[in-house]
Amino acid sequence: MRIKVMIVSDNQERKDQLKAEAEFARNKMECLAWIGYSEDFWDQFEECSPRLLILDSTSISEDCADIVRKVNSLKDNCRILVIGDGSDPEVLIRLLQLKIWAYYKEPLDISKLNQDLKRVSENIRNVTLPQVKHEACIAMRSLYFWKLMFENSDVAHDMDFANQIMNTNFTKGLFRILLFRFDQLQGEL
User: Fold this and answer.
1) Please, which residues bridge with residue 7 across strands?
2) CA distances to 111, 147, 163, 172 from 183, in Å
3) Which stretches of the chain are assigned E, i.e. beta strand?
4) What is d(CA 186, CA 189) in angstroms, rounded to the nearest whole number?
């Protein structure tokens, strides 16, 4: 699966440089959007849901730190690379406090960017055991909630409700199998 990338720059030369020299394909990345910063940026960001955002702050009139803060609040697992002129040390400090992945001063060092693209790709693709355990724990809690709901009320009514909420097509038999397996797992713990 390719990592979704969104590039925000109003500078056509920057876009051309990144298209020609950045190693997106080599790092299994796909650029879904090459856009300028405008009012519809947030709609496009929500639609693309990128895992990597490259933000060219030299061509943006808004405070880059505010943009990064909002991106982090909307999608906390999005890595952010910022290209800037480095003229304001306060902005740089605020950006680093917001946990951006990397900051590049003008002129852009494309070899450094390519190294960071490789690191970002490896980081996104590296799934650790604690992450898997955490996600499994959340799934089990959700399943336990559904089990409690089904034990205490009319199964047919609750199945319709569950299908509406989850946009699935659970059958009663499949759900009973999941609940049975859940009981087995609870006994093993």
Assistant:
1) 34, 54
2) 53, 10, 22, 16
3) 3-8, 29-35, 52-56, 79-84, 102-105
4) 5
